[in-house]
């Protein structure tokens, strides 16, 4: 059986850079034009908000901006989330990424000295997991040292999806998946992240209400909490899109 990318390349040679096809019951347009894709995903993204239909089960992923249809709820969420992704606020997370990168390089250096063969995929996966957990939740997992951390185990359950009947039906026949109540993801893992997110938000809001002098976090959840208030209250200038000033970060 040919790999998917080779099949797509063959279709492109036969039908051109833009062609339509069916994936079982779903109509799909295949675009292999970089300029057009840039317009669709960046410049004119508001015109193309719809995504491939996929049944997500009873998880809350269907409330995610990345899976929602381009309706009024999608527009409302996008207007809330967009200010969080300004370059100034994203740069505030670079300290986390730099620290984890240094730790990653140090770990590889130790194996270089010992001459021990390692599974690089495992280490790169751990690096990605550490970056995501720190930038999203503010949790320092160190997953290469703590492979049994609950966050790591539950993320693995969701990301390492086997081709079971639930995922096949949900992806290829979403209407049927909704009808029979198929679950494409491990619901215990989904509930773990739901509970973790709620717990962190509640703790952060309680912490903010007490107005302690500890340094304000710069992870994604904190930025979302901060977005409920004025950007300038936290040292961000939404016009100049600069860094938070030192005093406001204390």
Automatic annotation (TrEMBL):
<keyword id="KW-0349">Heme</keyword>
<comment type="similarity">
    <text>Belongs to the cytochrome P450 family.</text>
</comment>
<keyword id="KW-0256">Endoplasmic reticulum</keyword>
<keyword id="KW-0472">Membrane</keyword>
<dbReference type="GO" id="GO:0005506">
    <property type="term" value="F:iron ion binding"/>
</dbReference>
<dbReference type="InterPro" id="IPR036396">
    <property type="entry name" value="Cyt_P450_sf"/>
</dbReference>
<keyword id="KW-0408">Iron</keyword>
<protein>
    <recommendedName>
        <fullName>Cytochrome P450</fullName>
    </recommendedName>
</protein>
<dbReference type="InterPro" id="IPR008072">
    <property type="entry name" value="Cyt_P450_E_CYP3A"/>
</dbReference>
<keyword id="KW-0503">Monooxygenase</keyword>
<feature type="region of interest" description="Disordered">
    <location>
        <begin position="231"/>
        <end position="250"/>
    </location>
</feature>
<dbReference type="Pfam" id="PF00067">
    <property type="entry name" value="p450"/>
</dbReference>
<dbReference type="InterPro" id="IPR001128">
    <property type="entry name" value="Cyt_P450"/>
</dbReference>
<dbReference type="GO" id="GO:0005789">
    <property type="term" value="C:endoplasmic reticulum membrane"/>
</dbReference>
<dbReference type="InterPro" id="IPR002402">
    <property type="entry name" value="Cyt_P450_E_grp-II"/>
</dbReference>
<dbReference type="GO" id="GO:0008395">
    <property type="term" value="F:steroid hydroxylase activity"/>
</dbReference>
<keyword id="KW-0560">Oxidoreductase</keyword>
<dbReference type="InterPro" id="IPR050705">
    <property type="entry name" value="Cytochrome_P450_3A"/>
</dbReference>
<keyword id="KW-0492">Microsome</keyword>
<dbReference type="GO" id="GO:0020037">
    <property type="term" value="F:heme binding"/>
</dbReference>
<dbReference type="GO" id="GO:0016712">
    <property type="term" value="F:oxidoreductase activity, acting on paired donors, with incorporation or reduction of molecular oxygen, reduced flavin or flavoprotein as one donor, and incorporation of one atom of oxygen"/>
</dbReference>
<keyword id="KW-0479">Metal-binding</keyword>
């Amino acid at each position: 059986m040919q790999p998917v990318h080779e099949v797509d390349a063959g279709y492109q040679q036969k039908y051109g850079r833009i062609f339509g096809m069916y994936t079982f019951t779903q109509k799909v347009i295949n675009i292999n034009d970089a300029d057009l894709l840039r317009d669709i995903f960046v410049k004119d993204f508001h015109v193309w908000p719809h995504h491939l239909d996929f049944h997500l089960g009873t998880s809350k992923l269907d409330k995610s901006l990345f899976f929602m249809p381009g309706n009024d709820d999608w527009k409302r969420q996008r207007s809330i989330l967009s200010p969080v992704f300004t370059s100034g606020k994203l740069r505030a997370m670079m300290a986390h990424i730099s620290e984890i990168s240094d730790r990653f390089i140090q770990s590889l250096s130790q194996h270089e000295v010992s001459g021990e063969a390692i599974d690089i995929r495992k280490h790169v996966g751990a690096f990605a997991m550490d970056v995501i957990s720190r930038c999203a939740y503010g949790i320092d997992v160190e997953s290469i040292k703590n492979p049994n951390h609950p966050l790591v185990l539950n993320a693995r359950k969701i990301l390492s999806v086997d081709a079971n009947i639930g995922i096949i039906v949900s992806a290829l026949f979403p209407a049927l998946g909704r009808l029979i109540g198929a679950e494409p993801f491990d619901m215990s893992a989904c509930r773990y992240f739901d509970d973790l997110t709620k717990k962190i938000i509640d703790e952060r809001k309680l912490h903010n209400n007490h107005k302690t002098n500890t340094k304000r976090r710069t992870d994604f959840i904190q930025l979302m909490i901060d977005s409920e208030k004025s950007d300038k209250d936290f040292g961000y200038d939404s016009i100049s899109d600069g860094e938070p000033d030192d005093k406001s970060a204390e």
